[in-house]
Sequence to fold (332 residues):
Amino acid sequence: MFAQSRRAVASVARWARWNSTVAESSTATSRVSMTPQGPTIDGITESELSAQVINGRAIVEPYYHPRTHNIPAAIIHLRSHHPHLLDLFTLFLKHSASALAIPISRPTMLPTQRSLWTVPRSPFVHKKSQENFDRKTHKRAVKAWDTDPEVVERWVRYLQMHSVAGVGMRVVRWERAPVGVGRQIVDSVRAQLGEGETSKEQVVKLGRKIVEQELAAVGKEAKAVQKQA
Amino acid sequence: MGPKPNARILRDISAREMVKQNEVARRAYLYVARNQALPPQVRYQAQLQLNNFHIRTRPSCVRNRCTESGKGRGIINEFGLSRFQFRLKALAGELPGVKKASW
Fold:
């Protein structure tokens, strides 16, 4: 029994090292080696490690990747009437984010919403004898930073695929738009509407035309003067 | 399996259907009748047309009723149930998360 537990400790330690290669790369590089299947640590590939049964892997706190640029990418709200299911799914969410190298915050405990109802016990009259009912809505929020929108999309789809019945999820995403996106939108709308130039542009164009005509007239006069001379 | 239909439940169902069918026409006549920019003659005619609609086409004729028992009073909106049906269902554990409370 003792030997088994020691083995379990060793495998958990190896798993923890797998999840902390980003943080302590300087110390981990000595153990990491490349093979055709990908990087290995202590001669075990990542897929092999994932296939292993490690007792207690799920109760270990995941590795939280450090934020690199502090740019918000998404915020996930979870809510449920059952706190145990909610905690289970929150744990799954944390571990999946860690596996996808998404820097996330610690899950925030949002205030629990409590709805109360008081109804008479009887179907008719007897208001003095009533019964109280309540429903609690427990909430958690997790923020994610510095992640490509596609990775966020895959993470959310993975969470939806393994969603727990009785736990609701709402995702708010923030994406970076290129510089000048507002001008592009305005231009595309104007193209769709079929509008030409604005009055300002028309004035400028007409002004240039007049200047050209005047210059041409001046040039003709000059030539005529030269011919006469 | 809903409640056993009685006259009030059937009246409510009929009202909901008639309101849905005549909603656009009613709103249009109401818009004309209340538009102060239009001549009084037109507005008066629109008002007369509004009066010609069946009484069950009025949205106020629709009333929330219990989906289990058809009761018209004491409805808890969140579940669409009357207070007694709510109690029965809550005690049977059929409403997710609803429990007996005490404070």
